[in-house]
């Protein structure tokens, strides 16, 4: 075990809320302060510790990322641009619910319970009541609290926060922040689908070792790393075909491959895989390999996320679901009408919305025929005539050219049997 790993393990064993300093770590584990500093920064990236202004570096609980409906007191502190007056050891506990204390003490007592955050002004009796009920407190208007309250908060490890904003403003800020967070979490990202196990080869490994590795793991493509586990290439069966078993991987690998991070959206990865014609991308952090994503992982992830009941409906799907879709000999016919949400500020159908509707119709036509997802490679629109509210629209998406990887679709929009828009779309298929 390296010194860095020893320090990380030491930090993991510390109780949540413990203060951590470079000097103390260096003394306790008999390492240099430089080594201690680097390990603490690594621990911060792993979300084992966090640095809070005017408090210091604190051991925190690594809150499970999948709990998208929960926030911590630390996140609230950041949202309201506040400061912590006491109880800093509980700053990374999860907030159960928010309660606004604009009522009498007796009424407040009915609504609060353990783990809540009470939003209130400078009311000492209410502050004490909240702490007695194991609730945290957010004091509005830039006000503070008595030293006695701070002492109780420290003993109970319940945060007392303060912000300069009024109650209405901070509740609005919190609502917007949580809503945005939920939207972001609905976007499927790399870490949501990345397999736990990662198989890789080293640049000095030989072709024979790769052949053995293929048999042992069942995989055919591997990222290639250097001695520091930094990704330097990718190797596939095509690269080793006809090569001598003694030849080193670094001589035949594809160098400088495309990589993604843990926060890369899966939709972006699927586009990259199609455009670049690749079936696997390494996942890196600070250039070091931490995982791989294959085309199978992407397809499985996209299918899974569509089945989730909490998912917001994409705008394209809303447009399609408000229309009638019929299959034709050459593709599909989409029938609908111009609704208020399609209008621009001048009261006519937005050109962007109409283009989106036509391109989505093209994608649906391909999906109906091949049951495969596709990515638009090019979309050329020749003209658009204005449409008004409640105008009936018929869109014909006709597949006119089929290749092994490409589809071409002719798309025409009609109103009262008159052509109002025409486009040509080229798309690539996302194959398994």
TrEMBL record:
Residues 193-251, 253-313 form the CBS domain. This is CBS domain-containing protein. Signal peptide: none annotated. It comes from the Bacteria. SMART domains: CBS. The keyword Transferase does not apply. The keyword NADP does not apply. Keywords: CBS domain. Gene3D superfamilies: CBS-domain, Hotdog Thioesterase, HprK N-terminal domain-like, Winged helix-like DNA-binding domain superfamily/Winged helix DNA-binding domain. PANTHER family: CBS DOMAIN-CONTAINING PROTEIN, CBS DOMAIN-CONTAINING PROTEIN CBSX3, MITOCHONDRIAL.
């Amino acid at each position: 075990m390296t010194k860095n790993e020893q320090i990380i393990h030491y930090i993991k064993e510390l109780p949540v809320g413990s203060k951590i300093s470079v000097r103390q770590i260096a003394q306790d584990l008999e390492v240099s302060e430089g080594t201690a500093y680097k390990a603490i920064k690594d621990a911060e990236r792993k979300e084992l510790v966090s640095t809070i202004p005017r408090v210091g570096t604190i051991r925190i609980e690594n809150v499970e990322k999948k709990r998208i409906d929960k926030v911590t007191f630390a996140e609230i502190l950041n949202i309201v641009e506040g400061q912590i007056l006491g109880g800093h050891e509980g700053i990374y506990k999860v907030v159960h619910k928010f309660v606004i204390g604009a009522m009498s003490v007796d009424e407040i007592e009915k609504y609060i319970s353990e783990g809540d955050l009470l939003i209130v002004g400078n009311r000492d009796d209410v502050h004490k009541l909240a702490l007695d009920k194991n609730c945290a407190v957010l004091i509005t208007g830039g006000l503070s609290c008595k030293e006695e309250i701070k002492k109780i908060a420290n003993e109970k490890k319940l945060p007392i926060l303060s912000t300069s904003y009024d109650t209405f403003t901070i509740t609005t800020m919190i609502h917007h922040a949580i809503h945005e967070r939920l939207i972001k979490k609905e976007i499927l990202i790399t870490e949501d689908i990345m397999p736990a196990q990662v198989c890789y080869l080293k640049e000095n490994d030989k072709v024979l070792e790769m052949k053995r590795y293929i048999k042992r793991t069942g995989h055919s493509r591997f990222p290639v790393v250097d001695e520091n586990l930094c990704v330097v290439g990718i190797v596939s069966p095509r690269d080793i075909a006809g090569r001598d078993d003694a030849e080193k991987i670094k001589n035949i690998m594809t160098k400088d491959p495309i990589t993604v991070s843990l926060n890369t959206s899966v939709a972006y990865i699927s586009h990259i895989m199609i455009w670049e014609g690749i079936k696997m991308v390494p996942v890196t952090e600070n250039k070091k390999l931490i995982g791989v994503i294959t085309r199978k992982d992407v397809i499985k992830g996209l299918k899974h996320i569509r089945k989730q009941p909490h998912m917001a409906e994409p705008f394209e799907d809303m447009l399609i679901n408000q229309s009638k879709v019929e299959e034709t000999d050459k593709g599909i016919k989409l029938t609908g009408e111009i609704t208020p949400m399609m209008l621009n500020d001048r009261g006519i159908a937005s050109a962007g919305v109409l283009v989106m509707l036509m391109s989505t119709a093209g994608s649906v036509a391909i999906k109906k025929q091949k049951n495969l997802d596709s990515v638009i490679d090019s979309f050329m629109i020749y003209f658009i005539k204005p449409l008004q509210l409640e105008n009936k629209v018929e869109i014909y998406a006709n597949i006119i050219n089929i290749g092994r990887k490409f589809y071409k679709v002719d798309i025409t929009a009609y109103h009262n049997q008159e052509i109002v828009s025409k486009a040509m779309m080229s798309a690539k298929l996302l194959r398994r």
